[in-house]
Write a structure and sequence with these properties.
The chain is an all-alpha fold and 262 residues long. It has seven helices and no strands.
Length: 262
């Protein structure tokens, strides 16, 4: 088929050759992807294969624009060969797109699909894909897209449900922590009041101790003085300087002899 395309037009043959090389690279790439276990490497390999499929899609679109030239459409046999070739290219590309979707759904960090997303699925691209499908293929493709949409909706519902659940748990945790903080603040107030009360008691006790020390000091000085006087009196009983001290020297009694009474 490639040689017949080249015979029809050299430029079309070159595009056909480039597409054939990409299909060969995609086939080898998906075979390698089966053997890769690391998710990071698998994601990078999948991105590389996606880039190749984008390039293949561009070439198919270019091939489609070329075969719409009146030079080819005016010849039924040639037009048939070129359209069959285009349909074969689109079908093979679709098979790789399906493989990419299957692997991409299980790979984190995947990029958007080749014919998916707001910037990818243009009218021309969809026309290129659908114009070469039978009614049954279109129905199957529509059912597949519906299933994928339903699955995406279910995943979104699960994410929303999990988010609400996490939010509820977080709110409950915050409420518990707020109540705990309020209890801690109340305990701190009680501790602060107890510390102030203890400080006042310590000050009062300090003043009482100081007063008691003054009294004890005075008593001690008095006792020392009395003891000193007693000691002096015992050592020097004839000392007249301390005879008048109350309680230490006996009072002097004026006694008169009886014979003076006569």
């Amino acid at each position: 088929m490639a040689s017949s395309i080249s015979a029809i037009n050299e430029e079309l043959g070159e595009i056909d050759g480039q597409i054939t090389d990409i299909f060969r690279a995609l086939s080898n790439g998906f075979q390698k992807l089966e053997k890769i276990k690391d998710s990071g490497r698998k994601g990078r390999q999948l991105e590389d294969l996606t880039d190749k499929m984008r390039e293949c899609k561009r070439l198919i679109q270019e091939f489609d624009r070329e075969i719409k030239d009146p030079t080819y459409t005016g010849v039924p046999s040639t037009n048939k060969i070129l359209n069959e070739k285009k349909q074969s290219m689109v079908k093979e590309l679709n098979s790789y797109v399906a493989l990419k979707k299957r692997y991409g759904s299980n790979t984190e960090g995947k990029r958007a699909g080749l014919f998916e997303g707001p910037n990818e699925g243009s009218a021309d691209d969809n026309g290129l894909m659908s114009s070469n499908m039978t009614n049954q293929e279109l129905m199957d493709h529509g059912n597949q897209m519906t299933d994928e949409t339903d699955q995406a909706i279910e995943r979104s519902k699960k994410v929303v449900h999990d988010t609400v659940k996490v939010g509820t748990e977080t709110a409950a945790t915050l409420k518990g922590q707020t109540e705990q903080m309020n209890r801690i603040i109340g305990d701190l107030d009680s501790i602060n009041f107890s510390i102030k009360k203890a400080s006042r008691l310590v000050k009062e006790l300090g003043r009482q101790v100081a007063t008691d020390r003054c009294i004890m000091s005075m008593v001690f000085l008095i006792v020392i003085g009395v003891v000193a006087i007693i000691i002096v009196k015992l050592i020097r009983p004839d000392n007249k300087d301390i005879e008048d001290v109350p309680g230490l020297a006996p009072p002097v009694v004026n006694r008169k002899l009886l014979w003076f009474l006569d």
